[in-house]
Write a structure and sequence with these properties.
Layout: E1 11-14, H1 16-40, H2 42-64, E2 67-70, E3 74-79, E4 82-87, E5 91-96, E6 100-104, E7 109-111, E8 122-123, E9 131-132, H3 135-148, E10 159-162, H4 164-184
Antiparallel strand pairs: 1-2, 2-3, 3-4, 4-10, 5-6, 6-7, 8-9
Transmembrane segments: 15-34, 41-60, 164-184
Protein name: PH domain-containing protein
Keywords: Membrane, Transmembrane, Transmembrane helix
């Protein structure tokens, strides 16, 4: 906490299962590519690689990339290939339904695919009636605290953009896959 009671620094909220899913997918991709090199050589592995990388890209986009990043000035919400940034003064309300939802001053509701989510209280085995506060509720409280403590200068406009690095990576993978098909059929 800062000297004036406001939290400091940026914080990123992401679904916990996303890191696990991308980790397993990367390990599986490395195993498959290594196995292809061992069995068929580098040339054949390069023909197989775009398909494995496409599957890895899909897991990355669906499980890992969606997140909510907050700081003292505002928030950035990444939902798959779309990124929305806004200052705290653009937020009318914040709700926690099945996922975090921002109601913005342009009248739109922005659901956050990654980040805090509604879940039941965590129960510890062996203890009857002992339940801690769910992580989603704690995260919502932290986000609301940042929103309420935002300075008057936190009025950045609402901007929506595409995740260009991910789209460029997809384009490279698709071109590589088409080249692999043409080379394999030649």
């Amino acid at each position: 906490m800062g000297g004036d009671g406001r939290p400091e620094g940026a914080r990123t909220f992401r679904a916990p299962s996303g890191l696990f899913a991308i980790g397993i997918a990367v390990l599986l991709a490395l195993f498959l590519l290594g196995d292809a090199v061992a069995r068929a050589g580098w040339g054949r592995m390069l023909l197989l690689a775009p398909w494995i990388l496409l599957a890895l890209w899909i897991v990355y986009e669906n499980a890992y990339v969606s997140s909510v990043r907050i700081d003292d000035e505002g928030a950035t919400v990444q939902n798959l290939l779309r990124r929305t940034s806004f200052g705290w003064k653009r937020v009318r309300s914040i709700e926690l339904r099945w996922q975090l939802v921002f109601l913005l001053d342009d009248g739109r509701k922005l659901s956050c695919y990654g980040g805090p989510a509604k879940a039941g209280p965590m129960r510890r085995p062996g203890r009857v009636g002992d339940a801690s506060e769910p992580a989603g509720v704690r995260s919502l409280a932290e986000i609301e605290e940042r929103w309420e403590a935002a300075p008057e200068t936190a009025d950045a406009p609402i901007t929506r953009s595409w995740d260009w690095p991910a789209l460029i990576a997809l384009g490279v993978i698709v071109v590589w896959a088409v080249a692999a098909i043409l080379i394999a059929n030649a």
